[in-house]
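Q: I'm a student working through a structural biology exercise. My instructor gave each of us a protein and asked us to get a predicted structure, then write a short paragraph describing it. Mine is MULE transposase domain-containing protein. I'm not confident about reading structure output yet, so if you can add a plain explanation after the tokens, that would really help. Here is the sequence I was given:
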Amino acid sequence: MTLEYIKSQRGKDLLIIENYLFEKDKDAKNDPNTSYWRCQTRSCKERVSVVSGELSRHNIIHTHPDHSEAINKKRKLKIFKEAAGKNPGKGMKRVYDETIRNEVDAATDRDEAIAQMPPFKQIGRTMYRALEDILPKEPKSRSEIKFEGVWLQTVNNQQFVAINDGMADKIIVLCTEKFGKRLAQAKKIFSDGTFKSVPKLFEQLYTFHVKEDKQMIPVAYCLLPNKSSSTYERLLTLLRNWIASLGFIFKPDEIMIDFEQAMIKAINKVFPTTRVRGCLFHYRQAIYRHVQECGLSAAYNEPRAVDDDGNEIINDVRKAIRRFLGLPFLPVNEIEDAHTEMMEHVDLNDARISSFCDYHLDTWMKDDAKFPKEIWNQYGNFCDRTNNLLFFLLLPDLLHQFPIWCFV
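A: Happy to help. First, here is the predicted structure for MULE transposase domain-containing protein. I'll explain a few features afterward.
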């Protein structure tokens, strides 16, 4: 009989015999062609010998349930790992989807096959680790990163590494010429950054998106060494120059960001006529975060009450915070008066509320506020008030601190 082996989690061989797993006990001292194996269930006394690739004992009797479930999982794991190793130039999510489709198409019972497939979140890390075995040598510093061969292109043979600039302060931009054209032609651009889904040696992944036919499309992935204003300025300049080399002008009318001062400063310097608009989601998120920091969460989230007519009774804290949340929807020239009127109804004797109001004034309201009203104002912006929809497009946490080759 042909023997089937499969790898353990530690990479050791496991022998499969009639839906039972055996692990190697030892090799014969005087015979290199003979090895001894014992059942993986420690309480089981069953053992077998393998001589010259053949099983020497067949009448095996176990005193416990077989390992069918574990074997099926390991077989599935092997399929996905092999698929990952055969497709280094493809994204692992794409390899995963194609493998699922192939396995389901070949199955007798499609529904059962689908049910047995592990989710990508569970198998993804294993696939990336399998890919590491065939990847180029992992660079120890940003200056060592060099793209060659398949790593320069997409699976469709399009140039993908648009920018590879600098040494220790290296900036890498992944973008095809087709998407570079889309970026240049878009009047409004959406941007966002993440510090989670970023490969080793880089601090941040910054992405640019455009909206076409009501769909948000990621067009450029930028790996940055830090989040300083000078780095952002350099990134925008590099992008502008690269797009110019394609024969297009990169000069957006508006860029939506997530209230990062360093990026605001960079945009104003590189694109002085471009409007910077803050994301409404991030404005609301900042407000809610400070509600928590000021100890107002309990009051804001207390159960809602209704009067005898069924109308909602809103407590003073919740009412005040809602008013702050509504300010972005007013015309810019009306915000100041609305804020003054709001403050007349706020209990500043409550230290928590007073602290929150001071924060809002310094951060959002004053002439020298951290973020001017023109940036967070949404009046007249009837759509695209947030770039939060970009979050689901960002790469998963599976990529956190993985080699750059896995990311590409």
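A: Here are two points you could use in your paragraph. The chain is about 40% helix and 20% strand. Residues 68-86 form the longest helix (19 residues). It's a good idea to check both against the output above yourself.
Q: Great, thank you!
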